[in-house]
Amino acid sequence: MIRILIVEDEHAISDLLRLNLTRSGYCCTQVFDGMEAADLLEEQNFDLIILDLMLPGLNGFELMEYIRFLKIPVIILTAKSSLDDRMKGLTSGAEDYMIKPFEVVELLARVQIVLRRYHKEKCVLKFGDLSVDVENQKALKQGKEVDLTPKEFELLVLLMRNQNITLFREKIYEEIWGVEYPAESRTLDLHIQRLRKKLDLGDRLKTIFKVGYRLEEAS
Amino acid sequence: MIRILIVEDEHAISDLLRLNLTRSGYCCTQVFDGMEAADLLEEQNFDLIILDLMLPGLNGFELMEYIRFLKIPVIILTAKSSLDDRMKGLTSGAEDYMIKPFEVVELLARVQIVLRRYHKEKCVLKFGDLSVDVENQKALKQGKEVDLTPKEFELLVLLMRNQNITLFREKIYEEIWGVEYPAESRTLDLHIQRLRKKLDLGDRLKTIFKVGYRLEEAS
DNA sequence: CAAGGATGTATCAAAATTGTATCAAAATGC
DNA sequence: GCATTTTGATACAATTTTGATACATCCTTG
Fold first, then answer.
1. Looking at residue B119, what is its pLDDT?
2. What's the CA gap between B57 and B46, in Å, rounded?
3. Are A74 and A47 in contact (CB under 8 A)?
4. In this predicted structure, which of A16-30, A51-65, B14-28, B82-96 has the lowest mean pLDDT?
5. CATH 2.60.40.420 fits B124-215, yes or no
6. Which of A75, B49, B59, B150 ranks highest by number of CB atoms within 10 Å?
7. Please, is B87 exposed, middle or buried when counting C-beta atoms within 10 Å of its C-beta (0-12, 13-18, 19+)?
8. Contact of B134 with B124, CB cutoff 8 Å
9. Domain A3-117 has CATH 3.40.50.2300
């Protein structure tokens, strides 16, 4: 799920944004001044920020500095008049900007390209303290990279894509090894063990006796 | 010198563009219909194209298809009315668009970000104690120049432009050697080794077993 | 609860992949 | 044309991955 933070003091505009972005499948959080934004950014992670430069409380540009440090892409909203602001906004690290009043379709389009540019739409799978960047063949546990072999990685991705779903041994074997499951082989069990060990999965990677395996949060 | 192709049938607008872009130090070429544009693209190379979608002769979208094939970034110009066109333009591969009538300052800003995104502007890449001046084919380690051969340099630039991103062997090979990766070739490995040695990259240039390589700060 | 099948675990060797050294061909400069 | 540099090939070493085996342990069923 892609998370967008809307930093805008005019409630009408903020709600308009939220409505449309939510409808497009994004997960939105609204804040109405710069301090709130800074606080929230401390504790939560966002994929994109939509920022009105004319904010009460904190100066928009100071906030930009902080956001740049976090490396989160920003689309700036700015009043029609001030071209100077626009230039400043761009050079201070914004990914894009829109001039108020703006067309909603245009906003959605810009959100889309900014996200594409940041490869955020490419999927990062999450499960508890694990996150798996499929594109980059990276598995992170609590933010730290864990070295996985290609087979282990494939298996993990398969499991993560099917959280809370029981995967049959035969199904897994065919997906990963591409051939039918040789009944006596212990290969699959082995790789499951290796994943459990490397990622400390314990019984969050459940064994379904005689059937297969399932990844689910410990209850 | 950065070369921009302006494809616009209204002479007044075309000239306005040329005037401002030239003043900003870009090298501009003007054409006034799609056929001319296609012909010129056959024989010359450009860094950016500014394209009016409403063209006589060739359909703008057909031209887009061709441009996408050339991998040249495009900023689309479109009449205020047609929002549909804008959407189509974006999805057919444009990097950005502007609605006529537009502010010249805004255009310059967009040209700037699109070029930056495409790494066409003069840039010095940095990674730890390395900095690479792409224009001048110079690689510096702790400020001191390191002699790299052309192939080594190309490879380094590719890696530096994709820090923290896993580059697949096939992808690297195609980028640098321009042909499909011959499965048994050890050439790529060799050049990686040479870079590691010359630049003392150790395992900051990570091997992703069976997948490729990735440049990232040691954790 | 005991038997028997299924899974967990440790160890090891084969296979695959990558690292390294050396050398010759190709390109470049003088 | 010759010397030098760059590039890629080859052979072999080192490393990593993978699957097999053996045995321990666990689960299910009667």
1. 61
2. 21
3. no
4. B82-96
5. no
6. B49
7. middle
8. yes
9. yes
Of the candidates B100, B98, B80, B101, the one whose C-alpha atom is nearest the C-alpha of residue B89 is B98
| Closest nucleotide to B209 by C1' from CA | C17
Task: Give SS3 for A109.
Answer: helix
What pLDDT is stored for residue B124 in this prediction? 74
| Chain B positions with Cβ closer than 8 Å to A | 83, 86-87, 90, 95-96, 103, 105-106, 109, 112-113, 117, 164-166, 208-211, 214, 219
Structure tokens at B92: 């057919």
Q: How far apart are CA B77 and CA B60, in angstroms?
A: 11
pLDDT at A166: 94
Beta strands of B60-165 (E only): which ranges?
Answer: 74-79, 96-100, 124-127, 130-133, 138-141, 144-146
Q: Helix H segments across A24-143?
A: 34-43, 60-70, 83-91, 104-117
What's the whole-number mean pLDDT along residues A118-138? Answer: 80
Shared fold status for B3-117 and B124-215: no
Map out the domains of chain B as residue ranges. Answer: 3-117, 124-215
List the pLDDT tens digit at each of the 219 positions of chain B: 788 999 998 898 899 899 888 887 788 899 988 888 888 888 787 889 998 877 766 666 677 777 876 778 888 887 655 555 555 555 556 667 777 777 777 788 788 778 877 765 556 788 888 998 887 889 999 889 999 999 999 999 999 988 888 999 999 999 899 888 998 899 999 999 999 999 999 889 999 999 999 999 866
Tokens of B32: 């006034």
Q: Residue B56: is the preceding peptide bond cis (ω within 30°)?
A: no
CA distance B55 to B76: 12
Task: Work out if B186's Cβ lies within 7 angstroms of strand C.
Answer: yes
Give me the residue from B109, B117, B211 closest to A86, CB to CB: B109
Q: When comparing pLDDT for A122 and A182, which is higher?
A: A182
SS3 sequence, A138-182? EEEECCEEECCCHHHHHHHHHHHHCCCCCEEHHHHHHHHHCCCCC
Q: Does A90 have pLDDT greater than 60?
A: no
DSSP summary character for residue B136: T
One-letter amino acid of A12: A
Mean pLDDT value of segment A71-75: 84
- A175/C15 CA-to-C1' distance in Å: 22
A204 touches strand C (CB under 7 A): no
